[in-house]
Design goal:
Helix content is 21%, strand content 43%. It is an alpha+beta fold and 195 residues long. It folds into 2 domains: 1-43; 49-193, no CATH class. The strands form 2 sheets. Strands 1-2-3-6-7-8 form a 6-stranded antiparallel beta sheet, with no helix packed on it. A 4-stranded antiparallel beta sheet has the order 5-4-10-9, with no helix packed on it. A hairpin with a 5-residue loop joins β6 and β7. The protein is globular, with a radius of gyration of 28 Å.
């Protein structure tokens, strides 16, 4: 009987040691995985996803975009050819959402969510709000889905804006301004909240 008890105790001890070793190896493995994830997350994306928003009166304006960097490149007329449709950001098309109808350059933009595209040129840009807001780049862009289009004049700076940036500024309770700046170029346009 003593021998049987001793054998059972030895068997339990062996099983227990094996379990501890497995648990220790799993912890070691899990530690390595989490370290790898931390190291990967330390790498900054080249075109970080970002957003900006503002309340203009009771209108909530939300812009969602990926913000590419200049990285010592010529952007307009270089990386981005003039007179070609651009998704006004990187990766997915930039989108703008408003919960109120907006009046822009004499045209009404109904409340909703829109793909925001531009056609940059040297002297004048075309601004486009397109009903297809969820697309990669301009892969599915179709002019027939344009809701409104209008022209704006770019302004130029000697200072380089490294990352594309959008701003929504309040002019007063019924009017706001949307601004896009990148490289040495900036465009903006005002909008009025329709009541």
């Amino acid at each position: 009987m003593k021998k049987l008890t001793l054998l059972i105790a030895i068997a339990l001890l062996i099983v227990s040691c094996k379990n501890e070793k497995t648990t220790s190896e799993e912890q070691k493995h899990n530690h390595n995985v989490s370290t790898e994830k931390v190291e990967q997350s330390k790498k900054k994306p080249l075109s970080p996803h970002t957003e900006t928003m503002a309340m203009i009166g009771d209108a909530h304006i939300h812009i969602d975009y990926s913000s590419p960097g200049v990285r010592d490149r010529i952007i307009f007329g270089g990386l981005l050819a003039y007179d070609q449709v651009w998704q006004a950001g990187a990766h997915m098309a930039t989108w703008i959402e408003t919960n109120k109808d907006l009046r822009i350059k004499g045209k009404t933009l109904p409340a909703g969510k829109y793909g925001f595209f531009t056609i940059p040129s040297k002297d004048e840009w075309t601004i486009i709000f397109n009903s297809n807001w969820e697309q990669h780049g301009k892969d599915e862009y179709d002019e027939k889905d344009d809701v409104i289009r209008f022209k704006v004049k770019p302004t130029f700076s000697e200072e380089i804006k490294e990352h594309l940036e959008y701003k929504v500024d309040k002019v007063d309770d019924a009017e706001g301004k949307i601004n896009l700046s990148w490289e040495k170029v900036s465009i903006d346009f005002n909008f009025k909240v329709e009541q």
